[in-house]
Amino acid sequence: MNRRELLTGMAALGLAGPVQARPLMPLHDKPREMLSPPFVDGVGRDLTLEDFQGRVVLLNIWATWCVPCREEMPTLDALQEKLGGDDFHVLPLSIDRAGIKVVRRFYEEIGIRHLGMYLADSTRAMLALGALGLPTTILIDRNGFERGRLVGPAEWDSPEVMAQIQNLINERSD
């Protein structure tokens, strides 16, 4: 048994914690409607998910105090660097109650350079998005529908995950 098979087996049993042990994002059979809590960006502008319509979005609900969230953040930064643009956006939605200043400090500490800063009220975000734990990551299509969801960390810049996301980016709505 190779390392990947071992880690995959451990993850299935709930025994693995490392980011690289996580599977690809499970996709839904059909797109699901979503609610969007209000949130703000790093300069205080009021936003909702509708502001990102027309792009594929990887919404990651996280907090600076969440250890698995902190571990996966560099892979989200790398994913945004590689695929981000007019067709795709990583939206790291912090639910830190201490506000955007702790997010900004965290980004500076670990060298996040390609991700925007977004902040939402923790209760409103968790309820509206149906998040049961952190991190929760939701893949949203160009029309604002949820296409997949993963609770727990992942290696977001792995070739397999990037290919999965690129497939959704390549889909064009009719």
Automatic annotation (TrEMBL):
Gene Ontology cellular-component terms for this entry are: cell envelope
Kindly report the protein's main subcellular placement as a broad class. other
Keyword field contains Disulfide bond:
yes
Q: Which SUPFAM superfamilies match?
A: Thioredoxin-like
This one is known as Thiol-disulfide isomerase or thioredoxin
Q: List GO molecular-function terms, semicolon-separated.
A: disulfide oxidoreductase activity; isomerase activity
Q: What sequence ranges are listed for the domain Thioredoxin?
A: 24-170
Q: Which GO terms describe its biological process?
A: cytochrome complex assembly
Superkingdom in the source lineage = Bacteria
Q: Which UniProt keywords apply?
A: Cytochrome c-type biogenesis, Disulfide bond, Isomerase, Redox-active center
Q: Which residues form a coiled coil?
A: none
InterPro entries per UniProt: Redoxin (IPR013740), Thioredoxin-like_sf (IPR036249), Thioredoxin_CS (IPR017937), Thioredoxin_domain (IPR013766), Thioredoxin_ResA/DsbE_sf (IPR050553)
UniProt-annotated location(s)? Cell envelope
Q: Which CDD domains does the entry mention?
A: TlpA_like_family
